[in-house]
Design a protein that fits this description.
Layout: H1 2-14, H2 26-44, H3 51-57, H4 62-87, H5 92-118, H6 121-148
Helix pairs in contact: 1-6, 3-4
Membrane topology: Multi-pass membrane protein
Keywords: Cell membrane, Membrane, Transmembrane, Transmembrane helix, Transport
Family: Belongs to the 4-toluene sulfonate uptake permease (TSUP) (TC 2.A.102) family.
């Protein structure tokens, strides 16, 4: 499911489709997008759908969109950690590995900011969505190979 969601979001982004959420609808559409994102994240562990398309539909400028996505992913990650702790599924060993994984993630953020400032928005979006499609297809192939084995 994760691979399909990532590839689908990448394809949607490359298609040029841009949803719009009117100001009047944001009061009820935001919570619905959050609920749907939580439901999908509970099965996949990924918080990108439909939060990212929803935030894009708000027509934020590039920097505000990146900040909104970062805030959304941070809050979602903290909620996941709280839920794991509440259920007793949080383990210090896994947390240590996750903390170590923050080092390359932080480097990726710095490189991404550097690239965003030097690329046109159109080129950055194209590269981003192509990478998501590739990652999604990779996940689909891995899942298919695991099921076949």
């Amino acid at each position: 499911m994760l691979g399909v969601l990532l590839a689908g979001y990448g394809t949607l982004g490359l298609s040029g489709w841009r949803g719009r959420v009117p100001q009047a609808a944001q009061r009820w559409a935001g919570p619905l997008a959050g609920l749907a994102t939580g439901a999908i994240a509970s099965t996949t562990g990924v918080f990108i759908m439909p939060a990212a398309p929803y935030l894009q539909a708000l027509d934020l400028d590039r920097e505000d969109l990146v900040q909104a996505l970062g805030l959304s992913f941070t809050v979602s990650t903290l909620a996941l950690a709280a839920m794991l702790a509440w259920r007793g599924d949080w383990h210090a060993g896994a947390a240590t590995g996750s903390l170590l994984a923050l080092l390359p993630a932080a480097l990726g953020i710095v490189v991404g900011q550097w690239l965003r400032q030097r690329m046109s928005a159109a080129v950055f979006r194209r590269c981003f969505f192509i990478a998501l499609i590739g990652l999604g297809l990779h996940q689909c192939v891995r899942a298919a190979m695991t099921m076949a084995a």
